[in-house]
Specification:
By secondary structure, the chain is mainly α. Helices cover 75% and strands 0% of the residues. It is built from twelve helices and no strands. Helix 7 packs antiparallel against helix 8 and helix 8 crosses helix 12. The radius of gyration is 24 Å and the shape is globular.
Protein backbone atom coordinates (compact mmCIF):
# COMPACT_ATOMS: atom_id res chain seq x y z
CA UNK A 1 0.00 0.00 0.00
CA UNK A 2 1.62 3.18 -1.24
CA UNK A 3 5.29 3.81 -0.45
CA UNK A 4 4.96 3.51 3.36
CA UNK A 5 7.99 2.27 5.25
CA UNK A 6 7.79 -1.41 6.13
CA UNK A 7 7.74 -1.67 9.94
CA UNK A 8 8.31 -5.38 10.40
CA UNK A 9 10.52 -7.83 8.63
CA UNK A 10 9.39 -11.25 7.50
CA UNK A 11 11.42 -14.41 7.92
CA UNK A 12 14.93 -14.52 6.47
CA UNK A 13 15.06 -15.43 2.80
CA UNK A 14 17.43 -18.13 1.55
CA UNK A 15 21.04 -17.01 1.71
CA UNK A 16 20.29 -14.07 4.00
CA UNK A 17 22.16 -14.04 7.33
CA UNK A 18 21.78 -12.13 10.56
CA UNK A 19 24.54 -9.57 11.27
CA UNK A 20 27.23 -10.98 13.55
CA UNK A 21 28.20 -9.16 16.71
CA UNK A 22 31.39 -7.14 16.41
CA UNK A 23 34.67 -8.68 17.59
CA UNK A 24 34.81 -6.22 20.53
CA UNK A 25 31.31 -7.30 21.66
CA UNK A 26 32.28 -10.96 21.33
CA UNK A 27 35.50 -10.36 23.29
CA UNK A 28 33.61 -8.48 26.01
CA UNK A 29 31.08 -11.30 26.32
CA UNK A 30 33.86 -13.90 26.53
CA UNK A 31 35.68 -11.89 29.20
CA UNK A 32 32.48 -11.39 31.21
CA UNK A 33 31.71 -15.09 31.11
CA UNK A 34 35.28 -15.90 32.16
CA UNK A 35 34.96 -13.59 35.20
CA UNK A 36 31.61 -15.15 36.20
CA UNK A 37 33.07 -18.65 35.81
CA UNK A 38 36.02 -17.71 38.02
CA UNK A 39 33.76 -16.16 40.67
CA UNK A 40 31.46 -19.21 40.78
CA UNK A 41 34.35 -21.71 40.74
CA UNK A 42 36.15 -19.81 43.51
CA UNK A 43 33.03 -19.57 45.67
CA UNK A 44 32.36 -23.31 45.34
CA UNK A 45 36.02 -24.16 46.01
CA UNK A 46 36.09 -22.10 49.20
CA UNK A 47 32.78 -23.48 50.50
CA UNK A 48 33.68 -27.14 49.92
CA UNK A 49 37.19 -26.81 51.37
CA UNK A 50 36.23 -24.90 54.53
CA UNK A 51 33.22 -27.10 55.32
CA UNK A 52 35.42 -30.19 55.07
CA UNK A 53 37.84 -28.93 57.75
CA UNK A 54 35.48 -26.76 59.85
CA UNK A 55 35.77 -28.80 63.12
CA UNK A 56 39.59 -28.69 62.96
CA UNK A 57 39.54 -24.99 62.09
CA UNK A 58 37.29 -24.16 65.03
CA UNK A 59 39.52 -26.15 67.40
CA UNK A 60 42.63 -24.39 66.10
CA UNK A 61 41.08 -20.94 66.68
CA UNK A 62 40.06 -21.83 70.25
CA UNK A 63 43.67 -22.78 71.07
CA UNK A 64 45.10 -19.78 69.22
CA UNK A 65 43.14 -17.27 71.33
CA UNK A 66 43.72 -18.96 74.69
CA UNK A 67 46.85 -19.46 76.79
CA UNK A 68 46.19 -23.22 77.17
CA UNK A 69 48.99 -25.43 75.90
CA UNK A 70 48.31 -27.14 72.57
CA UNK A 71 48.81 -30.84 71.87
CA UNK A 72 47.12 -33.37 69.61
CA UNK A 73 45.71 -35.07 72.71
CA UNK A 74 44.24 -31.79 74.04
CA UNK A 75 42.80 -30.96 70.59
CA UNK A 76 41.12 -34.38 70.41
CA UNK A 77 39.82 -33.95 73.96
CA UNK A 78 38.32 -30.54 73.08
CA UNK A 79 36.62 -31.90 69.94
CA UNK A 80 35.25 -34.90 71.86
CA UNK A 81 34.06 -32.73 74.78
CA UNK A 82 32.31 -30.32 72.37
CA UNK A 83 30.61 -33.27 70.64
CA UNK A 84 29.46 -34.85 73.93
CA UNK A 85 28.26 -31.60 75.45
CA UNK A 86 26.62 -29.85 72.48
CA UNK A 87 26.12 -32.51 69.81
CA UNK A 88 27.76 -33.37 66.49
CA UNK A 89 26.66 -30.24 64.61
CA UNK A 90 28.23 -28.01 67.29
CA UNK A 91 31.60 -28.92 65.75
CA UNK A 92 30.52 -26.73 62.84
CA UNK A 93 29.53 -23.78 65.07
CA UNK A 94 30.53 -20.58 63.33
CA UNK A 95 30.60 -22.34 59.94
CA UNK A 96 27.66 -20.24 58.71
CA UNK A 97 29.74 -17.14 59.47
CA UNK A 98 32.69 -18.87 57.80
CA UNK A 99 30.60 -19.46 54.66
CA UNK A 100 29.44 -15.84 54.62
CA UNK A 101 33.11 -14.82 54.64
CA UNK A 102 34.71 -17.66 52.66
CA UNK A 103 32.34 -17.68 49.69
CA UNK A 104 32.95 -14.02 48.72
CA UNK A 105 36.61 -14.23 49.83
CA UNK A 106 37.42 -17.30 47.73
CA UNK A 107 35.35 -16.03 44.78
CA UNK A 108 37.19 -12.69 44.80
CA UNK A 109 40.61 -14.26 45.43
CA UNK A 110 40.45 -16.83 42.61
CA UNK A 111 38.83 -14.40 40.18
CA UNK A 112 41.35 -11.67 41.04
CA UNK A 113 44.19 -14.14 40.58
CA UNK A 114 42.99 -14.97 37.05
CA UNK A 115 42.72 -11.25 36.24
CA UNK A 116 46.13 -10.39 37.73
CA UNK A 117 47.69 -13.28 35.78
CA UNK A 118 46.22 -11.85 32.57
CA UNK A 119 47.34 -8.30 33.38
CA UNK A 120 50.85 -9.30 34.41
CA UNK A 121 51.11 -11.70 31.48
CA UNK A 122 50.31 -8.86 29.08
CA UNK A 123 52.72 -6.51 30.84
CA UNK A 124 55.64 -8.97 30.84
CA UNK A 125 54.87 -10.39 27.39
CA UNK A 126 53.68 -13.82 28.58
CA UNK A 127 50.01 -13.56 27.53
CA UNK A 128 48.43 -17.01 27.58
CA UNK A 129 51.59 -18.66 28.95
CA UNK A 130 52.86 -19.54 32.43
CA UNK A 131 54.19 -16.45 34.18
CA UNK A 132 57.85 -16.16 35.28
CA UNK A 133 58.48 -16.71 39.03
CA UNK A 134 58.29 -13.09 40.30
CA UNK A 135 55.04 -12.12 38.50
CA UNK A 136 53.62 -15.53 39.52
CA UNK A 137 54.31 -14.72 43.18
CA UNK A 138 53.01 -11.17 42.76
CA UNK A 139 49.72 -12.32 41.18
CA UNK A 140 48.97 -14.54 44.19
CA UNK A 141 49.87 -11.85 46.74
CA UNK A 142 47.73 -9.22 45.00
CA UNK A 143 44.79 -11.64 44.75
CA UNK A 144 44.92 -12.48 48.46
CA UNK A 145 45.29 -8.82 49.46
CA UNK A 146 42.33 -7.79 47.28
CA UNK A 147 40.08 -10.47 48.79
CA UNK A 148 41.16 -9.78 52.39
CA UNK A 149 40.59 -6.03 52.10
CA UNK A 150 37.05 -6.52 50.76
CA UNK A 151 35.88 -9.18 53.24
CA UNK A 152 37.79 -8.53 56.49
CA UNK A 153 34.83 -7.68 58.84
CA UNK A 154 33.31 -11.09 58.00
CA UNK A 155 36.52 -12.78 59.18
CA UNK A 156 36.33 -10.85 62.44
CA UNK A 157 32.73 -12.01 62.97
CA UNK A 158 33.63 -15.62 62.20
CA UNK A 159 36.46 -15.60 64.77
CA UNK A 160 34.13 -14.20 67.46
CA UNK A 161 31.47 -16.85 66.77
CA UNK A 162 34.05 -19.64 66.87
CA UNK A 163 35.29 -18.82 70.39
CA UNK A 164 32.07 -17.78 72.15
CA UNK A 165 29.10 -19.81 73.47
CA UNK A 166 25.80 -19.79 71.56
CA UNK A 167 24.18 -17.60 74.23
CA UNK A 168 26.53 -14.69 73.55
CA UNK A 169 25.88 -14.28 69.83
CA UNK A 170 22.76 -15.81 68.30
CA UNK A 171 23.60 -15.16 64.63
CA UNK A 172 25.94 -13.27 62.32
CA UNK A 173 23.91 -10.06 62.36
CA UNK A 174 23.82 -10.13 66.17
CA UNK A 175 27.65 -10.20 66.23
CA UNK A 176 27.84 -7.13 63.98
CA UNK A 177 25.25 -5.25 66.08
CA UNK A 178 26.83 -6.07 69.46
CA UNK A 179 30.38 -5.31 68.39
CA UNK A 180 29.30 -2.00 66.80
CA UNK A 181 27.27 -0.98 69.84
CA UNK A 182 29.58 -2.16 72.64
CA UNK A 183 33.06 -1.84 71.11
CA UNK A 184 32.62 0.55 68.19
CA UNK A 185 32.72 0.05 64.41
CA UNK A 186 36.51 0.36 64.46
CA UNK A 187 36.65 -3.00 66.24
CA UNK A 188 35.43 -4.73 63.07
CA UNK A 189 38.85 -3.95 61.59
CA UNK A 190 40.92 -4.91 64.63
CA UNK A 191 43.72 -7.21 63.49
CA UNK A 192 43.49 -5.93 59.89
CA UNK A 193 47.20 -5.03 59.58
CA UNK A 194 48.56 -8.46 60.65
CA UNK A 195 45.96 -10.04 58.35
CA UNK A 196 47.28 -8.17 55.31
CA UNK A 197 50.90 -8.77 56.34
CA UNK A 198 50.09 -12.48 56.66
CA UNK A 199 48.05 -12.72 53.46
CA UNK A 200 50.86 -11.37 51.25
CA UNK A 201 53.24 -14.32 51.88
CA UNK A 202 50.42 -16.85 52.38
CA UNK A 203 48.48 -16.19 49.17
CA UNK A 204 51.62 -15.38 47.21
CA UNK A 205 53.40 -18.61 48.15
CA UNK A 206 50.24 -20.76 47.87
CA UNK A 207 49.39 -19.69 44.31
CA UNK A 208 53.08 -19.59 43.35
CA UNK A 209 53.70 -23.15 44.59
CA UNK A 210 50.54 -24.55 42.98
CA UNK A 211 51.17 -22.89 39.60
CA UNK A 212 54.87 -23.88 39.68
CA UNK A 213 54.09 -27.53 40.43
CA UNK A 214 51.52 -27.64 37.61
CA UNK A 215 54.08 -26.11 35.22
CA UNK A 216 56.82 -28.58 36.23
CA UNK A 217 54.35 -31.46 35.96
CA UNK A 218 53.39 -30.44 32.41
CA UNK A 219 57.05 -30.18 31.40
CA UNK A 220 57.97 -33.59 32.88
CA UNK A 221 54.93 -35.61 31.76
CA UNK A 222 53.85 -33.79 28.61
CA UNK A 223 50.26 -33.74 29.96
CA UNK A 224 48.69 -30.28 30.00
CA UNK A 225 46.11 -31.25 32.64
CA UNK A 226 47.09 -33.08 35.86
CA UNK A 227 44.79 -35.76 37.29
CA UNK A 228 42.49 -34.78 40.16
CA UNK A 229 44.64 -36.48 42.83
CA UNK A 230 47.71 -34.67 41.47
CA UNK A 231 45.92 -31.30 41.75
CA UNK A 232 44.99 -32.24 45.32
CA UNK A 233 48.64 -33.07 46.12
CA UNK A 234 49.95 -29.85 44.50
CA UNK A 235 47.39 -27.82 46.47
CA UNK A 236 48.35 -29.60 49.70
CA UNK A 237 52.02 -28.69 49.16
CA UNK A 238 50.99 -25.10 48.41
CA UNK A 239 48.94 -24.89 51.61
CA UNK A 240 51.72 -26.38 53.73
CA UNK A 241 54.30 -23.86 52.51
CA UNK A 242 51.98 -20.82 52.51
CA UNK A 243 50.53 -21.39 55.97
CA UNK A 244 53.86 -22.23 57.63
CA UNK A 245 55.34 -18.95 56.35
CA UNK A 246 52.54 -16.75 57.67
CA UNK A 247 51.40 -18.65 60.80
CA UNK A 248 52.69 -16.33 63.59
CA UNK A 249 50.76 -13.42 62.05
CA UNK A 250 47.66 -15.62 61.95
CA UNK A 251 47.96 -16.16 65.73
CA UNK A 252 48.42 -12.41 66.31
CA UNK A 253 45.40 -11.64 64.11
CA UNK A 254 43.16 -14.06 66.05
CA UNK A 255 44.27 -12.65 69.41
CA UNK A 256 43.50 -9.10 68.29
CA UNK A 257 40.14 -10.09 66.77
CA UNK A 258 38.93 -11.82 69.93
CA UNK A 259 40.43 -9.43 72.52
CA UNK A 260 36.98 -8.07 73.38
CA UNK A 261 35.74 -11.46 74.62
CA UNK A 262 38.94 -12.95 76.11
CA UNK A 263 39.71 -10.14 78.56
CA UNK A 264 42.94 -9.01 76.88
CA UNK A 265 43.72 -5.58 75.45
CA UNK A 266 45.83 -6.35 72.41
CA UNK A 267 46.24 -3.17 70.37
CA UNK A 268 49.39 -3.42 68.20
CA UNK A 269 51.09 -6.25 66.32
CA UNK A 270 54.42 -5.94 68.17
CA UNK A 271 52.68 -5.48 71.53
CA UNK A 272 50.59 -8.61 70.94
CA UNK A 273 53.65 -10.60 69.88
CA UNK A 274 55.60 -9.44 72.94
CA UNK A 275 52.78 -10.42 75.29
CA UNK A 276 52.32 -13.85 73.68
CA UNK A 277 56.07 -14.58 73.80
CA UNK A 278 56.37 -13.34 77.42
CA UNK A 279 53.44 -15.51 78.62
CA UNK A 280 53.79 -18.60 76.43
CA UNK A 281 57.15 -18.53 74.62
CA UNK A 282 57.92 -18.32 70.91
CA UNK A 283 57.13 -21.88 69.78
CA UNK A 284 54.26 -22.57 72.18
CA UNK A 285 52.77 -19.12 71.66
CA UNK A 286 53.34 -17.87 68.12
CA UNK A 287 53.26 -21.35 66.59
CA UNK A 288 50.47 -22.77 68.76
CA UNK A 289 48.26 -25.08 66.71
CA UNK A 290 50.66 -25.19 63.76
CA UNK A 291 50.81 -29.00 63.85
CA UNK A 292 47.01 -29.07 63.48
CA UNK A 293 47.33 -26.56 60.65
CA UNK A 294 49.74 -28.97 58.92
CA UNK A 295 46.84 -31.45 58.88
CA UNK A 296 43.98 -29.04 58.21
CA UNK A 297 45.71 -26.54 55.93
CA UNK A 298 47.00 -28.84 53.18
CA UNK A 299 43.64 -30.68 53.06
CA UNK A 300 41.69 -27.42 52.76
CA UNK A 301 44.00 -25.77 50.23
CA UNK A 302 44.31 -28.97 48.20
CA UNK A 303 40.51 -29.36 48.02
CA UNK A 304 40.16 -25.66 47.21
CA UNK A 305 42.60 -25.62 44.27
CA UNK A 306 41.34 -28.95 42.91
CA UNK A 307 37.68 -27.89 43.12
CA UNK A 308 38.41 -24.55 41.43
CA UNK A 309 40.30 -26.14 38.53
CA UNK A 310 37.78 -28.95 37.95
CA UNK A 311 34.82 -26.54 38.11
CA UNK A 312 36.55 -24.22 35.64
CA UNK A 313 37.16 -27.12 33.24
CA UNK A 314 33.54 -28.27 33.57
CA UNK A 315 32.14 -24.77 32.97
CA UNK A 316 34.34 -24.30 29.90
CA UNK A 317 33.11 -27.62 28.49
CA UNK A 318 29.50 -26.63 29.13
CA UNK A 319 30.17 -23.23 27.51
CA UNK A 320 31.68 -24.78 24.39
CA UNK A 321 28.99 -27.46 24.04
CA UNK A 322 26.21 -24.85 24.25
CA UNK A 323 27.57 -22.94 21.27
Amino acid sequence: MGNGVQESQGPLTQGEVLPRPSSSQSEGFKQGRSVLNSLFSGALAGAVAKTAVAPLDRTKIIFQVSSNRFSAKEAYRLIYHTYRQNGFLSLWRGNSATMVRVIPYAAIQFCAHEQYKTLLGGYYGFQGKALPPVPRLLAGSLAGTTAAMLTYPLDMVRARMAVTPKEMYSNILHVFVRISREEGLKTLYRGFTPTILGVVPYAGLSFFTYETLKKLHAEKTGRGQPYSFERLAFGACAGLIGQSASYPLDVVRRRMQTAGVTGHTYSTILGTMREIVAEEGVIRGLYKGLSMNWVKGPIAVGISFMTFDLTQIFLRKVGYSSR
